[in-house]
Amino acid sequence: MANKQETLQHVALIMDGNGRWAKQRNLPRHLGHKEGCERIIETFEVCKKRNIKVLTLYAFSTENWNRPKAEIRHLFNYLESFFKKNIKKFERDGVRVQVMGDVTRLPLKTQKTLEEAIARTKDFDNFVFNIALNYGSQQELVKATKEIAKEVQDGKLDIQDINEDTISKHLYTHNLPPVDLMIRTSGECRLSNYLLYQLAYSEFIFTETYWPDFKEKEFEACLDEYYKRDRRYGGLSKKK
Description:
By secondary structure, the chain is of the alpha/beta class. Helix content is 44%, strand content 15%. The protein has one domain: Decaprenyl diphosphate synthase-like (Undecaprenyl pyrophosphate synthetase), CATH 3.40.1180.10.
């Protein structure tokens, strides 16, 4: 039987607290996002070291369009810079870039940056860097439901054959292992429309640290906490 560390394949993160981090320092909110981008590659390096195959990041939700336009513009500029800076590293490490969400609303320049990153890494399978942009889990489930309904309507699927796997196959994460651990920074204890279906049996860790301060040592501590837990999936504890 695989040991606990071998079973940790997929970590999902809600990178929260950038604006509050900036406010504490009397800085514009967008500089919190800039500093937060520095944590992304550091976090991914820890995943590589721990042989965690998938890192999923909640970068921009469907509700984030309600933020000031200037802040949104800066955020996408930082995102573009992140991929331009790290794409060659992803190629060297065999990292596949994936995107969850409806990217058609994003700035054209951002869309092109993402398309290039996806195209350049599509054949890699050592690790997966999965980023949620203009993503909302409720919207994802609506999309999946419509696709399944269309298959039934077209006679490709019998309604009696619809099960959990049917739904999973129509989600953005259909080709990824289940989420083992979800971490949210900044002290907020809610999911904010993130991976509602995929997190059914995941372990959760909520940390008070703002994302720009969430560095390697604390991420390692969260992973160590995960390894101590007894995941029962509705069954009985395996601990004596």
